[in-house]
């Protein structure tokens, strides 16, 4: 990397960005973990498994997607004001930060999924991971919500009954686990080693960095997702959202691809 480019990187951000830029200058980007010297924490995915994981997750560009509905479509459960700030300010900021972090580097054209897998567990790429993962999590969150009431399809319904006993029991567990996340984070319905599971992640963490857990849907428990509408009543936000606004059609489509 030239001295000019390094100076530009340092001016754009502080902290670990300078170190991350230096690492990227010597890093030949590829989607497979076999070409990465520092592996993600936890069980390392084999190359063929990571390829399958990327195929499931898709290829998300480094740009803010359109909301799948109008900003007021989730009212009264989630207000248009909350959606406007959440989507237009917080979600947009992650992409803006990524553009600054990755401009003129080999990772500038990578997908969010590739960035997440490549940067996870690497201290020198922590800023990249946090912004890429939060961008991806929010993409997934908006799709996990629906303005109209939905239900799981037959295949997913059978799996839910087999694992949890009923959709109501699953909903209660998703609420409980999500509400129990200390501080900022996410609640998820995932497929883990072939079985449905409810998990939580902190801050920007994603399930698919955990030995390839496959997310079906998510609920956001960062305060900016609910504070304007519910203040500190996170369980109330979760109860209303899970009961009335989860997009089971989206979850069913994800499950059908597994």
What share of the residues does DSSP label as strand, in percent? 5-15%
The run of helices and strands is HHHHHHHHEEEHHH
Give the total of beta strands.
3
Low-confidence stretches: 1-46
GO molecular function, one term: metal ion binding
Domain Manganese/iron superoxide dismutase N-terminal: 63-146
Function: Destroys radicals which are normally produced within the cells and which are toxic to biological systems.
Family: Belongs to the iron/manganese superoxide dismutase family.
What does this protein look like?
The protein folds into two domains: 3-59 and 79-143, no CATH class; 154-256, minor pseudopilin epsh fold. It is mainly α. The protein contains eleven helices and three strands, in the order ααααααααβββααα. Strand 1 (185-192) and strand 2 form a beta hairpin. The chain has a three-stranded antiparallel beta sheet with strand order 2-1-3. Helix 1 (3-12) runs antiparallel to helix 2 (17-25). The protein has helices at 3-12, 17-25, 47-57, 80-102, 112-119, 126-143, 154-164, 167-179, 227-230, 234-244, 248-256; strands spanning 185-192, 195-202, 214-220.
């Amino acid at each position: 990397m030239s001295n000019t480019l390094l100076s530009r990187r340092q001016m754009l951000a502080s902290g670990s960005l300078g170190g991350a830029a230096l690492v990227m200058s010597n890093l030949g980007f590829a989607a497979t973990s076999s070409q990465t010297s520092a592996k993600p924490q936890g069980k390392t995915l084999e190359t063929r498994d990571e390829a399958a994981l990327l195929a499931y997750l898709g290829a998300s560009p480094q740009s803010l997607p359109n909301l799948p509905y109008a900003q007021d479509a989730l009212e009264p459960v989630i207000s248009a004001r909350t959606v406007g700030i959440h989507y237009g300010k917080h979600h947009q900021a992650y992409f803006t930060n990524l553009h600054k972090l990755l401009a003129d580097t080999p990772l500038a054209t990578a997908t969010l999924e590739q960035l997440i897998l490549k940067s996870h567990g690497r201290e020198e790429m922590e800023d990249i991971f946090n912004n890429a993962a939060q961008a991806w999590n929010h993409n997934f969150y908006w799709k996990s919500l629906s303005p109209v009431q939905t239900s799981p399809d037959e295949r997913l319904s059978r799996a839910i009954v087999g694992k949890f006993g009923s959709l109501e029991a699953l909903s209660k567990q998703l609420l409980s686990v999500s509400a129990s996340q200390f501080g900022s984070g996410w609640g998820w319905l995932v497929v883990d080693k072939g079985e449905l599971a409810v998990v939580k992640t902190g801050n920007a963490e994603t399930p698919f960095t955990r030995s390839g857990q496959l997310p079906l849907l998510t609920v956001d428990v960062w305060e900016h997702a609910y504070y304007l509408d519910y203040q500190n009543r996170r369980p109330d936000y979760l109860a209303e959202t899970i009961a009335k606004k989860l997009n089971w059609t989206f979850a069913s489509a994800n499950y059908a691809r597994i």
